[in-house]
Structures are given as structure tokens and as C-alpha cells.
Amino acid sequence: MPPKFKRHLHDDEVTGSVKSERRNLLEEDSDEEEDFFLRGPSGPRFGPRNDKIRHVQNQVDEVIDVMQENITKVIERGERLDDLQDKSESLSDNATAFSNRAKQLRRQMWWRGCKMKAIIALVVVVLLLVIISE
């Protein structure tokens, strides 16, 4: 049996998992190179190099924000697609039920027409017998 997945994720669940993943990566034993990439440089921060680093960090932060917005939009799009799929399945079921009911009603009306024709024919025959027998 496949595992159950959540259909609807909230922003705090997505961002919280990213934060907790980052926290887990930082808490584990790591070497200096990994720390540099996860925490950023830890050396003295001054001069034009610091400005470049800050500028690059701001760009990275902007990209992260954009990507989080994109992920949120993809999740919302998935929810809308799920809703649309549910509605289309419901519409298909209703169309099938309508078709079946229309066939049933058509048969009923055909039999009613046949009964009326038989009654009229019987009345005509009786009238003819009454006229002929006089």
C-alpha cells in the first residue's frame, strides 16, 4: 500500500521543513568547508570584499524568496488541479447518470405511446363492431 501524502501543504510547513533541514545540517559534525557553505564566511568582515559578499548574499536571499514563492505557487496550482479533477470526475458521473435516465425515460415514453395506440385501435374496433352489428 503506498504511503499517504498530504494533499494540502501550508507555507509554514514548507518553510519550516527548510529551516529544520538547515538546522539539522548545521548541528551535525561537519568540516570547515561545509560550514562555510551553510553558515557563510566566518572571517573578518570589512572592506569592499564584505560589500561584495553582502551583495551576493542579498542576491541569494532574493533567489531563495523567489523559489519559495514558486514552490508555494506550484503547490497551490496542484491543489487547484486536484479540485478541477474532482469536479471533472463528478461531472462525468452526472453525465453518465443523466444518459442512463434519459434512456429509461425514452423507453417509458415509447411504451406509453404503444399503449395509447393499442387503446385507440381497440376503441376503433369496438366502434366498428357496434356500427356493423346494428
Plain-language structure description:
The chain is mainly alpha-helical and 134 residues long. The protein has a domain at 44-133. It is 84% helix and 0% strand. It is built from 3 helices and no strands. It has helices at 11-27, 32-39, 47-133. The protein is rod-shaped and about 130 Å long. It starts with 10 loop residues before the first helix and ends with a helix. The mean pLDDT is 81.
Mean pLDDT level: 81
Q: Helix segment count?
A: 3
Helix content: over 70%
Query: How many β-strands, per DSSP?
Result: 0
Low-confidence stretches: none
Radius of gyration: 38 Å
> Which range does the strand content fall in?
under 5%
String of helices and strands: HHH
Question: What would you call the shape?
Answer: rod-shaped
Membrane topology: Single-pass type IV membrane protein
InterPro entries: Synaptobrevin-like, V_SNARE_CC, VAMP4
Family: Belongs to the synaptobrevin family.
Transmembrane segments: 116-133
